[in-house]
Every structure is written in C-alpha cells, then in structure tokens.
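writing this on my phone so excuse typos. first protein, seq and then structure
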Amino acid sequence: MELMEAIVHRRAVRRYADQPVPRPRVMELLQAAVWAPSAVNQQPWAFLVIRGREKLHEYSERAKAHMLEILPRYLELHQRSDELSGGSYNVFHNAGMLIVILAKPAEHPPSEDCCLAAQNLMLAAHGMGLGTCPIGFVRPWLNLGDVKTELGIPMSYTAVMPIVVGWPAGGTGPASRTEPEIVGWRDYTDGSQTRI
C-alpha cells in the first residue's frame, strides 16, 4: 500500500470481528510506533497491551461509570450522558485489543511524541488490513492511581493515546476533509518576499 493511499483511506473502525490479532502483528505495530520522530530523540513512550474482549467490556463499564461521575467537569460531553448510562454502549467498540501509548517523564514534553507514535501505529495497522480507533474518552480513567496500579502502569507515566485494534467487521464509509486552510504563505526563495 502506498503511503498517501494509507493516509487518505485509513478510517476509525467501530465494529470488530471476534478474531484475535496474532502477537507477531502486535509486535510489528509497536515497532512501527517506535520509529516515530521525537524531540531530541528522547523516545518517551511505553506501551500497555490489553487483549481480551470480555476484560475490555469490564473496563468499558468502569470507564463509563467514572466519566458519569466527573461529567460536570467535562461539559462538552453532556450530550453523551444517555449513551454512557446505556448498558449496551461499549467505549472500546467490542474490540478484542487495546494498545495504550504511555508518556514517560521526559525533559521535553512527551505527549506530542506519543501522538506521533500513535499515527505510525494506526497507519501500519491499516496497511496490514487491521482497523483502529483512538479512544481518548478513557484517558481520565486510565490515569487514576488505582487503575494504574491494577494495570501495572508506573505512577509517573501518563496514558496519552488509547487505541483499539482489531480486524474490521464490515467496511467503513467514506470520509471527507476540507481543503487546507492556509493563513499565510510567504516565499523568500528568490530574495524578495512573494505572498501567495
């Protein structure tokens, strides 16, 4: 698959087949992630892999309960409160695997680097025929102290980008994008400023 084709056609997948992703494929995804650029090559990422549809369903219920508790502080999510309180909604879209990209303490802010690693991982997954979907919604729950202890996440690490990964169950519809908004373009290559 050509790189631009992968960039243009990758979609967030919200329906997954009940078929596990083989461990070698998971390792390939993590290898792709660590080739992302990072400030002064600090590579401030670590990874948590959770496999198992039933366990992720349990975590979904716990994450939903936490979000309903803190919802007043997240006013923009109020319109989702009905969905959150419904028993059928699974925040992990019934996927069988979650990969959480964690930021380690670093001299330079590590979150941006972790997001670059996430993009590498998602594009690599798309190239393998896998689907992915970032689940930023569960970050507050993953960063609770007791949840970190339960999952073995060091307290000094921060969950930055949780991503479900699996084999898509059906296709995803086309998406549109607006043209790039260019607020300025100043070209000094010929010795004089040209505004385009």
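second protein below, same order as before
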Amino acid sequence: MRKNLLTYLALGFFVSGCATTQSNSISEAEIAKLQTRNSVLEEELSQKQEENLSLKEKIAQLEKTVIKMPTGKEIQIALKNAGFYQGVIDGQIGQKTKEAIRKFQEANGLTGDGVIGSRTWELLGKQLKK
C-alpha cells in the first residue's frame, strides 16, 4: 500500500509538472505572431526615426532663416541711416520713433502700423549697416 501511494504521488508530481510545462510554453503560432508584430514595430520605429531626422533638418533650416528682432537703438540707428528719424538715439520706442517707422513702412510698400515686424525689419535692417 505504501509503495502504491508513493507511486501515485510520484506519478501525480510528474503529470502536474508536465501540465505546468505545457501551459507555460508558447506555441509556434504565437511565436510567429510575436515575430511578425516585432517586425511591424521595428519598421514603424524606423519610419519615425526618419521623420524625426527630417524634422530636425527642417528646424535647422528654419533657424537659419529666423530674423533676429532688433533693439530699440538698432531700430533708431537704421531709421536715422534711412533718413526717417532725426531724434536722439536712446533706445526708447516713443512717438517720434513710431512715426518714423510708419513713414518708413509706407515708403516701402508695407502697412504703416508703426510696429517692427519681420517684414519691416528685413528691409529696415539693411539700413543698420550703412
């Protein structure tokens, strides 16, 4: 009886061990499915890396074309060099400076709003170097 009991226990452990091994194993179909999914994700990653590189290149190009906005003194000097400002170069954008900006804008086919935007500074900035 004791021998039979030990045999049944050993058989029980063996069978339960095999069942555990089978339930923890991954089938070939599941492996193939995971490999396919992995390939798809690797391709998506590659595409995203290419997009990232392309965007970095575009940002670098844009940074080269960004116009640095001027200081008040630079604006006044450029306006004076262009013949639109006769006041003191103090860096303060007051009424005289705004009026000079308006006149410069109108003389150059821009909207005379008295505000230095990128288009105004693109033209006016050339006068700074004179």
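The helical segments are 2-24, 28-65, 72-82, 95-107, 118-128. thats all i got for now
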